[in-house]
Structure to design on (187 residues):
């Protein structure tokens, strides 16, 4: 049986602010599981309080392939046809990505293809960019290189700091990701 793309599992590592936006603004999809590689992630408690099934396992010090297999098995058990990475701060291995190829989205805090990886806000400020933003993209084996399915832009001002720019982008992430996920799940 083919998994239903409207059933979504969300992967988090921390507070889960994007996960919350995906849950609160869910239209056309249902969140069936929130999973984390950090059992102490505050977002897990938030999801549990709302009756969403959760799964967690500490990935630190574990063999990547073993962890990815257990996570993948749990995602399949949940019936999720779409996986949304929302602040999941662990690089997934190639076997995992191939297993769920074409079924995973990620939100990234830059206007891809600019600033793949970490420290995107500092890099935009250092480059003197006039605008910055966020991108929702399909997850591929190459980090932050999959097809961009949606973007939102914010102006960069002379008074911006890493913190103010991060806050402006996060507001846009919370608007953009639920809309992009709804379109992706409806395909």
């Amino acid at each position: 049986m083919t998994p239903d793309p409207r059933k979504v599992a969300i992967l988090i590592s921390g507070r889960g602010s994007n996960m919350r936006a995906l849950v609160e603004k869910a239209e056309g999809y249902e969140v069936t599981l929130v999973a984390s590689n950090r059992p102490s992630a505050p977002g897990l408690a938030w999801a549990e309080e709302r009756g969403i099934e959760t799964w967690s396992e500490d990935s630190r010090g574990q063999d990547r392939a073993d962890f990815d297999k257990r996570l993948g098995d749990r995602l399949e058990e949940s019936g999720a046809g779409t996986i949304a990475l929302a602040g999941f701060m662990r690089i997934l291995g190639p076997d995992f990505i191939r297993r769920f190829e074409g079924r995973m989205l990620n939100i990234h805090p830059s206007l891809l293809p600019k600033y793949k990886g970490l420290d995107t806000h500092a890099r935009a400020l250092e480059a003197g960019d006039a605008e910055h933003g966020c991108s929702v993209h399909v997850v591929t084996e190459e980090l932050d290189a999959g097809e961009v399915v949606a973007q939102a832009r914010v102006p960069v001002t002379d008074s911006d700091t890493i913190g103010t720019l991060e806050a402006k982008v996060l507001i846009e992430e919370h608007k953009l990701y639920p809309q992009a996920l709804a379109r992706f799940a409806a395909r």
In short: The domain at 4-185 is CATH 3.40.50.170 (Rossmann fold). The first strand starts at residue 4 and ends at 12.
